[in-house]
Amino acid sequence: MNQDIKRYFPILNQEVNGHPLVYLDSAATSQKPIQVIEAMRNYYELDNSNVHRGVHTLGNRATDLYEGAREKVRKFINANSTKEVIFTRGTTTSLNTVAGGYARQTLQEGDEIVISYMEHHSNIIPWQQVAKEKGAVLKYLDLEADGTISLDTVRKTITPKTKIVSVMMVSNVLGTINPVKEIAKIAHENGAIMVVDGAQAVPHMKVDVQDIDCDFLAFSGHKMCGPTGIGVLYGKQAILENMEPVEFGGEMIDFVGLHDSTWKELPWKFEGGTPIIASAIGLGAAIDFLNEIGLENIEAYEHKLAAYAMDQMETIDGLEIYGPRDPNKRCGLVTFNLADVHPHDVATVLDMNGIAVRAGHHCAQPLMKWLQVSATARASFYMYNDEADIDALVAGLQAAKEYFNDVF
Amino acid sequence: MSFNNNLDQLYRSVIMDHYKNPRNKGSLEDESVTIDMNNPTCGDRIHLTLKVEDGIVQDAKFDGEGCSISMSSASMMTQIVKGRKKEEALELAEIFSKMMLGEEFDVDKYDLGDVEALQGVAKFPARIKCATLAWKAMEKGVKSDNE
Predict the structure, then answer these.
(1) Number of CB atoms found within 10 A of residue B89's CB
(2) Is beta strand B56-65 parallel, antiparallel or unpaired with respect to A85-88?
(3) What is the mean pLDDT of residues A357-363?
(4) Which of A87, A363, B19, B139 could hold A121 in an S-S bridge, CB 3.0 to 4.6 Å?
(5) Contact A229/A276 with Cβ under 8 angstroms?
(6) From which domain of life does this come (chain B) (predicted)?
(7) Residue A62 burial by CB count (10 A; 0-12/13-18/19+): exposed, middle or buried?
(8) How far B62 CA lies from chain A's nearest CA (Å)?
């Protein structure tokens, strides 16, 4: 599918360090198709104006485009209403809004928050902070040896004292696809709410908030072909209605007095200040693009790529892959270490070959500790990658190994 | 392969020698200063112990984990600061920082020895932080020593 798709991504058509660019870092940020770039340029060239306030025509156009993007997001995640779709700066801001808003306003001393060992820092630190402030207890779901979460562990860890469960749907390191729907059920049985970090899932597979029955879902635009600086917080309407805003100022108010004010209705009460208009429109265009290809196709294609990548990479002597080996339990990324060569050194050698991978702790230090490594390298795929990219990666890894064997 | 020329500027054999056979690895037992530092973006970590007496860095040892650049740089740093006056050690840290940033420095003031091999790192912006970690730790340690 990719040759047709690759042409929509002008950035991929270039040489890096004298080699054709092989971009394998989409889990950090995806590339942007011309449709997204053009939607944002058109907005700035033709329609730019502030939203929800101008009486003039441009103001109406900008508002229609911005709210139109919200409706695209609603449909994309199957939310009940656009009142449940809040535009934020990204997954981090979305999760901080839940921790700094909902959690801060509802937690009591001794209440429990349950997360897992594989979480990204953005789904750890907001909970650490609110737990410290409210005297709540932060608990971690232990992982199985293959880097998955077992429902037995979930049942044992979540108790009636648990008020919030927050788990990533797809791991940015292990690639594991977590059973968030089943975890949500157990959370609800215990009277807790379920927060899903969808940063690595929403770009790559169908995520249906009503099917999962999560109370909150957080994700970022820039990992799904959209621009940076835009993300989404989905929340169930009943919860959002009772939640106080965390940011105050223009755009989010109804009536402002000298000593007290009231808020706009949902979702705008959570969108203080001039919103991220152009990026929201860009995200809308990204959703159109993903829908056109079809998320089912993207998911199936990435499964295939990941399986091929693991098969090929395992032929390299001394290469260790982290996370589940079963391609059905994981998504399109492969995290690995190459024998005694440090991942930074691996990444530098690959970069000299035009291949972009991530190296480091991937914003998941507790997970690195669990894996007993200080750092790893990661190759992550999207619909514009193909088997030739993986062949280039494998050749690059062989070269890295030989190079370091030679100099040692 | 075609990229080896570029890579050879970074991975000079003296660097790989320090990586494979680090000098002054371990922890001093009679240290006067201990510094733990890490590079939060990549997880490199250094544990540096210094024995500073009479204004002189009498001994230095390091422990830690990281890539070839960060660990070889730590090894070279301990080698060059041992026996130096505190002011000299701090000046060397400054010279090293300038070398990494590609800024000019007084090349004749010190014989940099093995450290010169790290000059190529300046051409790899993503790796500069790896190289400077140990030097920042040393600078912090020497400055904090109030004997």
Answers:
(1) 26
(2) unpaired
(3) 90
(4) A363
(5) yes
(6) Bacteria
(7) buried
(8) 17
Q: A407 and B44 in contact by Cβ < 8 A?
A: no
pLDDT > 60? residue B2: no
pLDDT band for A407, please (50, 70, 90 cuts).
low
Mean pLDDT score across all residues of chain A: 95
- Per residue in A173-230, pLDDT tens? 999 999 999 999 999 999 999 999 999 999 999 999 999 999 999 999 999 999 999 9
A2-30+294-407: which CATH number, 3.40.50.300, 3.40.640.10, 3.90.1150.10, 3.40.50.1440?
A: 3.90.1150.10
Query: In the predicted model, is pLDDT for residue B15 greater than 50?
Result: yes
Query: Residue A348: what are its φ and ψ, rounded to 5°?
Result: -65, -45
- Tell me whether residues A348 and B6 touch, CB distance under 8 A: no
Among chain B residues, the shortest Cα distance to A351 is held by B3
Chain B residue with CA closest to A350: the answer is: B3
The domain segmentation of chain A, as residue ranges, is: 2-30+294-407, 36-291
**Chain A neighbors of B45, CB-CB under 8 A:** 374
- B2 → chain A, closest CA residue: A353
Task: Note the pLDDT of residue B5.
Answer: 72
* pLDDT range class, residue B73, cuts 50, 70, 90: very high
Among A303, A269, A284, A315, smallest CA distance to A383 is for A303
> Given CB atoms, is A399 within the 8 Å cutoff of chain B?
yes
pTM of the predicted structure, to 2 decimals: 0.93
- What are the chain B neighbours of A351 within 8 Å (beta carbons)? 126
CA-wise closest residue to A38 among A289, A314, A212, A375: A289
Which pLDDT does position B12 carry in this prediction? 86
Point out the residue among B3, B20, B42 whose CB comes nearest to the CB of A344: B42
Residue-wise pLDDT for A224-237, tens only, equals: 999 999 999 999 99
Which is nearest to A290 in space by CA: A217, A203, A230?
A203
Query: What's the topology of domain A36-291?
Result: Aspartate Aminotransferase; domain 2 (3.40.640)
Is A225 designated active site? no
- Residues of A234-256 as b/e, b for ≥16 C-beta within 10 angstroms? bbbeebbeebebbbeeebbbeee
Question: Chain A 192-211, CB below 8 Å of chain B: which residues?
Answer: none
Q: Which domains does chain B have, with CATH numbers?
A: 4-144 (3.90.1010.10)
